[in-house]
TrEMBL record:
PANTHER family: TYROSINE-PROTEIN KINASE. Belongs to the protein kinase superfamily. Tyr protein kinase family. It comes from the Eukaryota. Residues 15-114 form the PH domain. Its cofactor is Zn(2+). It catalyses: L-tyrosyl-[protein] + ATP = O-phospho-L-tyrosyl-[protein] + ADP + H(+). The lineage of its organism: Eukaryota, Metazoa, Spiralia, Lophotrochozoa, Mollusca. It comes from Sinanodonta woodiana. Residues 374-625 form the Protein kinase domain. Keywords: ATP-binding, Kinase, Metal-binding, Nucleotide-binding, Phosphoprotein, SH2 domain, SH3 domain, Transferase, Tyrosine-protein kinase, Zinc, Zinc-finger. Residues 153-188 are annotated as: Disordered. Pfam families: BTK (PF00779), PH (PF00169), PK_Tyr_Ser-Thr (PF07714), SH2 (PF00017), SH3_1 (PF00018). This is Tyrosine-protein kinase. Its EC number is 2.7.10.2.
Amino acid sequence: MAKQKEIKVDYMMKRAVSRGAMKIENYKSRWFVLDSDNLKYYGGSLERRTREKGSIPISNIRAVEAVDEGMLDDKKFAFQVVYADKSNFYTLYVVALNDDQRKQWIEEIKKAAKAKDVPFLQKYHPGVWTKTLNRYNCCDQIDRNAPGCVLATEKERGPPPESIRNQGRIKLPPSIPSPTPPEGRNNGIQKEKKFYVAAYDYKPAEDGDLELITGDEYEILDDTRDHWWLAKNRKGDKGYVPSNYVKKKFDLESYEWYYKGVTRERSEATLKADGKDGCFMVRDSSTPGMYTISIFCGEGGGMVRHYHIKKSSDDKFYLAEKHQFATIPELVYYHKHNSGGIATRLRNPPIRNKNAPVTAGFGSSKWEINRDELEIFEMLGAGCFGTVHKGTWKGRVVAVKMTKENTMSEESFIEEARTMTQLSHDNLVQLYGVVTKTKPLIIVTEFMPYGSLLTYLKRHRARILSKVATLTDMCLQVCSAMVYLEQRGFIHRDLAARNCLVGENQVIKVADFGLARYVLDNEYISSQGAKFPVKWAPPEVLSYTRFSTKSDVWAYGVLMWEIFSGGQMPYDNMRNADVVDYVCHLNKRLEKPNASPEKLYSLMIECWHKDPDPRPSFKEIHKKLSGLLEVGNYPSIS
């Protein structure tokens, strides 16, 4: 076979093509050779070329474009060659010596591709996917194979290949889901495949689970379980993965700037903590289906501005009416390059906590933990269950509760433990598992570095009592967890500030849900043998030991009172018997804390209705609190 004529030859630098979980970016100098059929690169030095190191058929190339300055590890004069390999797409990044050399190579490769009628992609990324950010630095997508965010040169564009068709637009879910065919029938319609992208690395803890690599794509085969989904990777390997480690492909969640479920107060705290001008996030508005952009502006000592993303009559998104876009990502991309009427152009989203979220148990079916795998360190506290220690399980920091003998109804608790490990929410302290095969019984949970909410409130009372929004946000976080439990028919029975814990960034999580049923302690037992803390109990529990979600609502009202009083003891200086008389017979309630606005005290009073039914549900409380937190002045722009 005759040797192909070499069209262009140069000695340039390339970045290693990422095909796995490499954590560093490798650069090497190579001889690049372009002929009519292939783009090849060779080893060697500037003086001589050695053996071939790699080759890309021209027919496989799908894009050749410059990389924006500074995007590729601050290197200048970089360009990219996007190519197909079986069903996957890869990108070769090349660093030229100067801009002229870069332009010449882009032009020559495009000429060679055009001669073969190669179908180029309609869009490309002017930035790169980096391992330090775990996202593209141009559009903030976490998917390594995400569709491009900038239109390619018009004359180069062709129809998109079948494997990436319909990827250019991110459709928001419809407000009303399509009807589902009757069970057992699909009406001849093939079930649509579900593709997700890993947002975090995951190392399996047991057989049957599947490793996740950040940025890689996975097909979800079964998502009927809440927290563990059956997935398949590109190699065809199958196993269970934690559902909160993956994000839906082509959805807002696949963008680093989208903060699902974040309140106005928490958005301000997060953006101020980052403190960079133009730092921004897109979050859900209090109005369902609507979104808000929150931006940190450095002027005037630093403040956060909030802009509602509006929707036109023809379903276009905009901040300023003269700049309308088919999708929210397109709107964000525009305002990253043009202020377009807002206070400052968008720069980058906040740097997220690199720690992966907690999983529901250590594995898809693992809830019994081997005692030998636990390392137990210093004691953090003691309570009616026993002692709480800091510990580790296979390198992961955990909290270890070592129960005292005769403090729990162990057999009953063990029956419930498996169910409890499958309860998982951002504002619930995760129960990972239990040690039951040796004594004492050990409960292993998520570790929360700042201890109980009660202690936190007391310690920071002077600083936070003037911050109504912060205190309200604490209430909202606890309420979010209780909505989750309410929806699953799970009763806490001991909701109080002492049973909530504080984590990084003032995240509040509810702990010890359901455990009160198993306590054998006189402090929790009335004369009738019922288990409850009197000062947080409603009349029906004090009189008839009737527990329900509505008894949790009463306790939640008391917890709100604790928050707005800075951790004071409710009914201070009153004995339990006096509290029963005060609440049940005199029908009196706790007085308004000085820090509480009237609207929030009115909500507490609603929680303390003498009859359970008129008390609001946690869902209703959540809606009211969200509305109060979202109230504010939104700038109007045109």
